[in-house]
Design brief:
This protein is an alpha+beta fold and about 425 residues long. It has 15 helices and 16 strands. Helix 12 (about 340-355) links the parallel strand 12 and strand 13 (about 360). The mean pLDDT is about 95. The structure holds histidyl-adenosine monophosphate.
Length: about 425
Amino acid sequence: MSQKNQFQSIKGFYDILPEATPLWFKLEDIARKVLSQYGYNNIRMPLVEPTELFVRSVGEHTDIVEKEMYAWEDQLNGDKLVLRPEGTAGCVRAVIEQNLTYNGSQRLWYIGPMFRHENVQKGRQRQFHQVGCEAFGFDGPDVDAEQIVLLARLWRELGITDVELQINSIGDADERAIYRQTLIAYFEQHADCLDDEAKRRLHANPLRILDTKNPRMQAMCEAAPKLMDCLGEASKAHFEKLCQLLTDAGVAYVVNHRLVRGLDYYNRTVFEWVTTKLGAQGTIAGGGRYDTLVEKLGGKSTPACGFAIGLERVFLLMQEYGVTANNAPDLYLVNVGELAEEKAFNIAETLRSEGLSVVLHAGGGSFKSQMKKADRSGARYAAILGEDEVASGEISLKPLLAQGEQQRCQLQQVVQKVKD
Ligand code: HAM
């Protein structure tokens, strides 16, 4: 039971415990490997950014900006600051500020925590982690396709199957402006079907109404005019080429006409990867093109495209698929008696210099209790140093996971056997 004067973590903010970190490492290592296979370079942005950056990029009338940002005024200088709710805006800020596209295009990726004051549920936290990926300076659909194919490869390498790719094109700003009017007129004709949220959004952000989860509005939204029908030739061609590239790459997709994404900076391609295995929070990654954002934030006009993966959701999915990982050492070094204790410290160092991972038993105790700890450590071997071993200058090696006899060995033989 928690004591009254004990601290607890804040709602929606979680510790990631040592038993979980090996699987996190696996996820992060595989993501890093795949991203570098596609030529993406890592960038690390601050967690705190100016509030206005997100108002201008993500959009004033989005859920994130309207109600989910951890924003405050710095008591020392009055600056308006925010814990970043997402990574794209900060990445664009850094690209402009550091002139990163001076010599041409850039493929960047980042990993780290994001913060949104959302209702907490499975797969939805207030601090969560994303791997994000942003490509600057490419206007063709080949880069949109490349990012989607990269994700398909990532799921395969992580052992995740059965995730559905949904894609759509939301056109360019002028095409969306025409669609916006068509959609408002349509929703006004069906005003009796609209819930309070939809009524509030009708003029501020009517496209988001299409995203509604309200069962009473599904049929009406399904029958709404399609954005695709308002697209001009160039946007249409971009989308068709993307579809063709995905088909050629063998990546299956579903065109979801109601997919608009919850952030305002997108144009043309938008996409999400969705699973049915996580309940309501089934989107494990989302992204799209944002060709006007760099200019809007003060840079020179630069086409861009990116996505972010929700790592907690992918982690849950890996568990769901039975993917495991462990951080067990090669050896647990048992040492009984004063002389053995003295020698064990240097032996452990020598073994580590040979590339082995070694947990040195510390704190004394009987042979039996030390062997119990060796078992619990998950190590493949117990290396045992008792009085007899010290006297003969040897070490006893006992396999803990596989069948096999305990054997007396010289130090170099220990290294050989463990590495074999
Ligand atoms: P987003 O769709 O807001 O896009 O977030 C991307 C992913 O982050 C979601 O699909 C989900 O997996 C995860 N996520 C979002 N909120 C939470 C939460 N409260 N708890 C757990 N996971 C969450 C973006 O953030 C864009 N910046 C993506 C992007 C990059 N677009 C272009 N470049």
